[in-house]
Amino acid sequence: MTKTETPGTLLTAMRGQSPLVQCITNYVAMNVAANVLLAAGASPAMVHAEEEAGEFAGFAGALTVNIGTLSPAWIAGMKAAVGGATAVHRPWVLDPVAHFATGFRRKATADLLALGPTVIRGNASEIISLAGGTSRARGVDSRDPVERAEEAARSLAATQCCIVAVTGATDFVTDGERAVRIHGGSSLMPQVTALGCSLTCLVGAYAAIRPESPFDATAAALVHFAVAGKRSAERSQGPGSFAMHFIDQLAAVDAATLDEEGKVVWL
Ligand SMILES: Nc1ncnc2c1ncn2[C@@H]1O[C@H](COP(=O)(O)OP(=O)(O)O)[C@@H](O)[C@H]1O
Ligand SMILES: Cc1ncsc1CCOP(=O)(O)O
Ligand SMILES: [Mg+2]
Fold first, then answer.
1. Ligand 1: does its nearest atom lie under 6 Å from the Cβ of 95?
2. 52, 28 in Cβ contact below 8 A?
3. What sign for the dihedral angle of Cα 194, 170, 10, 188?
4. Is 194 annotated as a binding residue?
5. Ligand 2 site residues, Cβ closer than 6 angstroms
6. Mean per-residue pLDDT over the chain, rounded
7. What per-residue confidence (pLDDT) applies to 234?
8. Could you tell me which residues come within 8 angstroms of residue 77 by beta carbon, excluding any fewer than 6 positions away?
9. 141 CA distance to ligand 3 middle (Å)
10. CATH 3.40.1190.20 fits 7-266, yes or no
11. Domain ranges of the chain
């Protein structure tokens, strides 16, 4: 991030363009993620059929691919969409939900990784395991602290030549050389399903407006979540009211709020 391109500047640019984001996400996340993107200021479209996914990616601002509820038909749609996005040099974001859990997921994830994602966004367990380490998780929820994933993220980013974002109590973003930690959010966030998946879609929205700067775009999306999450927790009684306030706060925060309340620490 530069002084002129703060997260707040990127928020204003993102809202100004309201980018069309093709989200191939899971059944759990589809509705949540669409509401998150609309509240944040982007335009989501959940388009995953093989017959149309590549064509759609040819005019979407960015593509996001999430393997949460995988099936062979969805994998075909994902590959077609990545082909379409790559052909027109649009960024695409991979969310490797519980990729370590089964052979089916491991194979699909390896195939998608080989197609060269612009950004990988996962929780600490997912990133540790994706870099070849052993995580403690068995399913979609992380069982490792982000600090344990930081070296894994750097190495994965360097090997894959992409941006890697690890989320959790404190987030970490790296391109293999540069790295930032982003503080904020709330411990209520992992108690609401699909917020990580929705964040992946929001990374796509920011990447759509700054395809040449995916590091800054990813960090801005994470700051947007961190600030909205902290403000929502201050207004909530538990996970249910948090989910409602979170949508409100994603919409309520403006550029000045992100730049005043966002806590980004360069490493
Ligand atoms: N303990 C926590 N404190 C603050 N924010 C959190 C915490 N756990 C997760 N988050 C936030 O929740 C969002 C989703 O991250 P995470 O739960 O790691 O993803 P996933 O749902 O894929 O496991 C991110 O914005 C992250 O910063
Ligand atoms: C519960 C569940 N099962 C398959 S995908 C999914 C949603 C996971 O969402 P997130 O990774 O954002 O917690
Ligand atoms: Mg996840």
1. no
2. no
3. positive
4. yes
5. 26, 28-29, 68-69, 97, 140, 193-197
6. 97
7. 98
8. 24, 48, 49, 50, 53
9. 7
10. yes
11. 7-266
